[in-house]
């Protein structure tokens, strides 16, 4: 049984926000809603702030040193978190929120994603990263069995492996 939903689903929201290349309010909040969060329409200020937050999330995934990641996530937690509480809403079973009952949408998203990254980092910080393919900056959460993922997708991995193969074959006399 998975007791804490923040390490899994919240980390997925964090990685999806971190990977938004086009930071429009519609895409940001559609991403959050796709993960089941009940959020109201953002103000323009909230949308701009969420774009900045998303960039900070991406920086956590891009940082290779878990000790530095801890400091980065602690800064996110300090900025976003408040006292946890149990709630029921929208027909969902009881669950924990890390933001206040009357906090705005932006604060709720920030607390949720910071909490998700904190749990992921504490469970296995090596299961987050950015694609190793040259030119690709896509962040990912490694859910593979062996935890050795280096690429954001099979497509990127295949592209790299084919290029390496062609180099080897081309280099043979």
Automatic annotation (TrEMBL):
InterPro entries, alphabetized: ABATE, ABATE_dom_sf, Znf_CGNR
Listed SUPFAM superfamilies: Jann2411-like (SSF160904)
Sequence ranges assigned to domain Zinc finger CGNR in this UniProt record: 127-168
Coiled-coil stretches: none
Entry-linked PANTHER family: BLL6575 PROTEIN
Protein name as catalogued: Putative RNA-binding Zn ribbon-like protein
Species of origin: Labedaea rhizosphaerae
């Amino acid at each position: 049984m998975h007791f804490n939903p923040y390490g899994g689903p919240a980390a997925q929201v964090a990685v999806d926000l971190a990977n938004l290349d086009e930071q429009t309010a519609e895409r940001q909040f559609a991403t959050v809603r796709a993960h089941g969060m009940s959020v109201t329409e953002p103000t323009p200020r909230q949308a701009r702030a969420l774009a900045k937050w998303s960039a900070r999330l991406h920086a956590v995934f891009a940082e290779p040193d878990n000790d530095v990641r801890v400091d980065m996530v602690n800064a996110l937690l300090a900025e976003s978190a408040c006292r946890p509480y149990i709630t029921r809403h929208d027909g969902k079973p009881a669950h924990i929120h890390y933001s206040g009952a009357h906090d705005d949408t932006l604060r709720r998203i920030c607390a949720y994603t910071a909490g998700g990254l904190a749990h992921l980092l504490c469970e296995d910080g090596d299961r987050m990263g950015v694609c190793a393919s040259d030119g690709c900056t896509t962040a990912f959460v490694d859910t593979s069995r062996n935890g050795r993922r280096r690429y954001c997708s099979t497509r990127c991995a295949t592209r790299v492996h084919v290029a390496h193969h062609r180099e080897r074959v081309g280099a043979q006399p």
